[in-house]
Amino acid sequence: MSKPHPTRGRRVAATRLSLQDPSQYCGPIEPQTPLTIQERLLGGEMVKNLPGLDLAITIVSLTEVGSTYPSRVRLAARKAADAPSAKTAAALERALRRELDRDDLADYQAIEMSRVADLLVAHQAAFGSAEANARMASKALNLAGLMLRDGRAAPVLLAVRSAMLFAEDATEELDPLTYVAEQRYPRLTMLNARISRLSSELSIGTEAQELVEVDGAVLDGGVGAEGTVDEEDVAFLDRLIWKTKPTAAPTLVVIDQHALDHLPGSASSGSSNASRGSTPRAEFQPLAGVALPLVHGIDVAAVRQVLDREYPWLADITRKVLGDLVGGRFARFQRTLLVGKPGSGKTRYVRRLTALCRIPSLVYSAAGVADAAFGGTSRQWSTGRACVPLQLIQRTRTANPCVIVDELEKAATRRDNGSLIDTLTALMEPEGSRAYFDPYVETEVDLSAVQFLATANATAGVAAPLLDRLRCVVVPDPRPQDLKAILATLLPEIRADRGQDEAWCPDLDPEEVGIIAEAWGKGGSIRPLRRFVETLLSGREALAPRH
Asked: Using CA atoms, how far apart are residues 161 and 19, in angstroms rounded to an integer?
């Protein structure tokens, strides 16, 4: 039985995943051994991001004592190993290609010398040779063409993206002596927007070409001619005609329609010992069988622009987390743990992120939590409550809100009264969240769309099962050059806390900003920075004239 052809949706999803994590095609982001030439053409990195080290390992077989390779090759290889550069790599490549024309080479020698010669082009490009970068761009485009014929969409886009980067580096000759090691992957991800536009334009061109073919078939045989227009052509034209028809907004039923029928009391009234003074059935019946909306249609570019302006030191993290929202049917961040020093702005950042995305959120402090109340408590207790995610869904009437678990490493590890860690582990498992048994309503609820973001000062205290389920990103400290951006958001917060408006608490003047900058020094935690600002404002008030 033949394998079914993947749908367009699956191919798009696979391509998106490949752009986010291309390691299956171009090797690990931090390789420990040299990659193949194909992996390099798809965006692969050098060993430890050091072309010299990668070159030395690549040509080790040519420099070994007792090597039987031609003397010219061994001499050029030793020079390249002793002084790795674009020039010595090019000389070794020329020596290899000259010797490959000999008829007396052993097969294993010819294969190894050909492999090394191809890789040396990548090394020359990494050292800054414009000519080598142009050659790599050409090879990458040729590889894209080969893979295109095989119907492999994901690596095609990776090859085109890599070719773009090689082409950019081919515009000018760089001085090998001033070369600074720089990872390719971050630069490649910056080209994703250009690749997206290219993909969109190619898709439009494909549809236009299909239209041309259909028009040609109609003209060849005339309208209604037998065998001219088949059902697939008609369906294609229908899709083009109705493609602008609005699609239904995404929704999710969290509690099935009859899931609460087993509970005592009626759906509208009753009494219980629950803190809300109503039965669980009456409390959650409004959600039963209701297709709750899923937040979607977020303007990712606009959100990124605001976050980059307010949190410039977190630009790399912004690009990573907002990338989760691109191409999805509804908003869903990958479960992520932000790890950074106290005062680096982690919690403020994720709150601002969800607010800009219009995703309802709740900050749940894990510090000192020593029970399983997060996962809901039974009605047999006097304080029975639903799990925190279900409460958030009930309050916001949204199926994909975000729970921000703050200070995750400070959660208690004892299990005397249950464990927050165990509850989070279950909720972060796809199968567990899709059919989570809530002890309060005593039925399974679908929490699969609930999003989880977490913060921690270090990973040392975070349980291993949670680390396995979370993408960890390191939050850097704010830098001195970020002071202006921080003050732009910090001052309005201080005004709000004091109940003052801008007239009573105007912006800091240049002299005051200079004093704050000197006090803050080399940057770091925002908390002492806030204290500096508050102290300065208090000094203002003390010196203000009284009438």
From this structure: 10
Could you report the per-residue pLDDT of 336-364, keeping only the tens digit for each? 999 998 888 899 999 999 999 999 999 99
CA 325 remoteness from chain centre: 9
**The whole model's pTM is what?**
0.54
Give the separation between CA 407 and CA 380, rounded to whole angstroms.
30
Quote the CA–CA distance of 121 and 96 in Å, as a whole number: 12
Cα distances (angstroms) measured from residue 516 to each of 169, 309, 313, 521: 41, 20, 19, 9
Residue bearing tokens 């515009």: 171
Coil, helix or strand for 414? coil
User: How far is it, in rounded angstroms, from Cα 29 to Cα 21?
Assistant: 9
How many of the other CB atoms lie within 10 Å of CB of 158? 27
Question: Residues 154-174: pLDDT tens digits?
Answer: 788 888 888 988 888 887 554
186 compared with 85, residue with greater pLDDT: 85
Cβ 357 vs Cβ 325: under 8 Å:
yes
- 91 contacts 80 by C-beta, under 8 angstroms: yes
Residue with tokens 């997060």: 374
**Rounded Cα–Cα distance for residues 404 and 349 (Å):** 11
Distance (Å, rounded) from C-alpha 445 to C-alpha 438? 7
